[in-house]
Structures are given as structure tokens and as C-alpha cells.
Amino acid sequence: MSSKPPSLQGRRNAAKQLPRLPLSVFTPPNTGTSDKFPLPPSPSAVHPSKVIDAHVVGDPELGKWQKEIGEILGSRIYGVVLSALPDQISAVPKEIGNVKVVSATISFSPDDIASASAATEAASESAVPVSFSTVFTRSTPESVAALQHVLEKGRPVDIEISADGSLGDLEEFLLQATKDTESVNIPPIILSNILPPPHDFGLPIVKLMNNPSYRAYQEQTATLSLFPFVYVKYIPPVWGVATPSAPEPGATIENSGAKEQREWKRRIKMYLGPSIEAFGYERILFGSSSPRASSAASVAGDWYAVAREAIAEIGMEQEAMDCVFSANAEAVYGRK
């Protein structure tokens, strides 16, 4: 019996079929059909009914986060997935103010089975559902053993891909860590720092689209989606600059940040397309904290504004919007 999931057999070395969005996403109906096929609602009018922020890191009291979420995001916040160290887990409450703590994520060091053991032992002290988190740089016997140890607890595991990490190596890492387990018994593994992935923000978007790294991203995203237990987090990218702020009321186009927001959304949609085609909207989770590797932390409310509009502009309907911004996180992290 093969040790690899059946859906992956024969696919790793074969040519990958790149995901494509239908042309209708980019082309509105012509005027002759506009009565039968009305234009979708304006992106500015499409909001999730509620929001679970699935990536709040380094702010156990939520003080900084609550100052950053702003009025629009703040009015929709239902819950958070909050990071914690093993020795902090017993102090994490079920609610902070009027915000539900959907899960407490306990971090452990990669390549360190002792750290993984400490994280799983601390989990029993939590008053809320727990999950685990680590950083991936390379696949080693030690890192595989550490991941296997925490997966045995049946709880979700966040894996942030470091700046030096390779998505190709990540595929092998996941195969090795899960080869002896039926895929239906593997808890969710949630990848971050790949939607959107790091890239040179100074590279013109036309050149980026034709860059070999972009084609490689499409292929690798399609391959990773073949793991049915893998999800991706939709969080601020490592682009060397912070997410642009929303335009001030009455500000001119030149100094309002609108130009920067448009540029960000154009780039984000380049990566959203392949990710949605590969994973579906049921396996994408919104979060507001920047990856550890980021040198320019984004404000939570600013990222929500850009991230939400980018999704709305590619034509996602209300059900999909609600899944990405709340339902998926509740299903993944909130289960007992």
C-alpha cells in the first residue's frame, strides 16, 4: 500500500494544470444583456456579516489590536484566534471585552520535539479550544517529528512559511509528516505567508505577471491544495511596506492613499485568483497580523479594508465572503 495520499499519486512530477479564473470575472456583461445580467453590487457595499480574525499575534490583551481595527471592522468583529506561549495559555479567557476567543494558538519551535511536547502538555490548561503554531524553513527529521507530535493531538496547526522556506520543500515536509495517517484523520493545517506571498513590491506588475516566480507560485499552490486538510490564511503580505491607509474624507486622489490601495488590490488579486481556484473559498481564512518576517507591520483595519475589497472585486458572493471572514475560522478552530 502506498504511503502517499492517493490524490497525490503521479502528480508530483507531472505537469501541473494551472488554475484559471473565468473571463467573466474580468469582463462585465455588454449593454445588450445588462437587463438580464445586472452588474454585481459595488465592492464597497459587500461586507461579511461578521468577522473572526484568525491571526492575532503578539497582543494577548488585545489592546493594540482593538485600537487598530477601526469602526468598520470593529462593528463586525465576533471573535479572534489569539496566539499564546505555553506558559500563558492558562490565563487566556473565553472572552476579552465583547470579543470571543475562538481559539488560543500555542507556539512551538521547529526542529525541537521538546518544544512541541511542552506545547501539547500546556494545552490541557486552556479554557478555550487550542491550536498550535510553528515556522517552516526546511524539512528535517526533527521538524517532521515535531509536527507529527502535535498533529497526534487532533488540533489545528498553523505553519508560517519563513522567508527562506520553499513551497516545494513544504510539500515534501507535509508528505513525510502525514504519510502514516489517513487524510480524513489529519487535523487542519493552515499555511500563512503565501496568500499573498512575499515579492519585490518595486517590480512593476506587468513584469511580475511574467516572472518565473509567479508561474511557480501558481503551480505550487495547485499542488498544495491536493492535501485535503490544508488551508491558507489571507494575511498582510511581506512586501517591505505597510498596507496603505484608507483615504481621509474629503482628501484628493493624489494624497488620499487611493492610488496605493488600487495598486495593492491589483497585486493581491493576482494571488487570490489561483488560491481560490485551487483551495476554494471554503479553505481560506482571514487574519490581520503580519507574518513574523515582516519589517512593516500593517494596521488591522487598513488590511481588512484592502483585503475585503480585493475579494469583492473578483466577484465573490455573500456566502463566500462570510466563509473567508468568519465561518471557515469558526469551523477549523472552534471545534472541540
Give a structural overview.
This protein is α/β, with parallel strands linked by helices. The chain has a single domain, classed as TIM Barrel (Alpha-Beta Barrel), CATH 3.20.20. Helices cover 34% and strands 15% of the residues. It is built from ten helices and nine strands. Strands 1, 2, 3, 4, 5, 6, 7, 8 and 9 form a nine-stranded mixed sheet that branches. The protein is globular. The N terminus is likely disordered.
Tags for this model:
nine-stranded mixed sheet, disordered N terminus, hydrolase activity, Amidohydrolase-related domain-containing protein, 336 residues, single chain, alpha/beta, 34% helix, TIM Barrel
CATH class: Alpha Beta
| Distinct helical segment count | 10
Number of strands: 9
Shape: globular
Strand content: 5-15%
Task: Report the radius of gyration as a whole number of Å.
Answer: 20 Å
The fold-level CATH name is TIM Barrel
Question: How far apart, in Å, are the first and last alpha carbons?
Answer: 32 Å
Q: What's the domain count?
A: 1
Order of helices and strands: EHHEEEHEHEHEHHEHEHH
Structural class assignment: alpha/beta
> Which blocks of ≥5 consecutive residues have pLDDT under 50?
1-12, 23-29
Q: What is the makeup of the main sheet? A: 9 strands, mixed
Mean pLDDT: 86
CATH architecture: Alpha-Beta Barrel
